[in-house]
Amino acid sequence: MTPKEKLRIFFRNVRKKISSERRKEASSNAFHFLKERLTPFQRILSFANTPEEIDLHLLNEWISMEKNLFLPKIEENDLCIFQITDLASQLLISNRFLLQEPNDQLCNAAELFSIDCILVPGLAFDTKKHRLGYGKGYYDRLLARSQIYSIGIGFKEQMSLIPLPVEPFDQQLSELALF
């Protein structure tokens, strides 16, 4: 087992142990902080969180009403981007990993160059703004194709006390926002 695989197991367990009260507090703090932090950006690529991740539903609703919301969809080995104008009517559907994604029949595809800021999920983060993802490299490939400002989003408990292992294809984030 590689060091990254061991860390993924460790941080999945850390995240599972976060209480529901703590999750609600973190999600509320994330919503209020990110509303302010995202002020300079108009076109934001967010993500539909899994139940284990910080809840971004309210933030995504706000972005879709006040700015331009984009969400990713896995197609083969890449993330494709779709603009979401109404979360309620452009229903998200589950993919093979049980992640919620845009229904490409109900929303328009977009190009990466049209994005101002990317909100990035992860299992762990470190002080050098590296992230440990889920192991498929989707976000690293997306970030490698651009110089777009990126913010790693998660719980404070996901901060690694030691530097994460970094490989040549791993992309550093612009900022961390852990709650």
Q: Give the tally of β-strands.
A: 11
Distance between the termini: 30 Å
Helical coverage, percent range: 25-40%
CATH domain fold name: Rossmann fold
Largest sheet geometry: 7 strands, mixed
CATH class group: Alpha Beta
The total count of helices amounts to 4
Low-pLDDT segments, ≥5 res: none
List the helices and strands and how they pair.
Layout: H1 3-16, H2 20-37, E1 43-45, H3 57-66, E2 68-75, E3 78-84, E4 92-94, E5 100-102, E6 108-110, E7 117-120, E8 124-125, E9 131-132, H4 138-144, E10 149-154, E11 175-178
Parallel strand pairs: 1-2, 1-7, 7-10, 10-11
Antiparallel strand pairs: 2-3, 3-6, 4-5, 8-9
Describe this structure in words.
With 179 residues, the chain is α/β, with parallel strands linked by helices. It has a single domain (3-178), classed as NagB/RpiA/CoA transferase-like (Rossmann fold, 3-Layer(aba) Sandwich). Helices cover 27% and strands 25% of the residues. The strands form 3 sheets. A 7-stranded mixed sheet has the order 6-3-2-1-7-10-11, with helices on both faces. The protein has a two-stranded antiparallel ribbon with strand order 4-5. It has a two-stranded antiparallel sheet with strand order 8-9. A hairpin with a 2-residue loop joins strand 2 (68-75) and strand 3 (78-84). Helix 2 (20-37) runs parallel beside helix 3. It is globular, with a radius of gyration of 15 Å. 33% of the residues are buried.
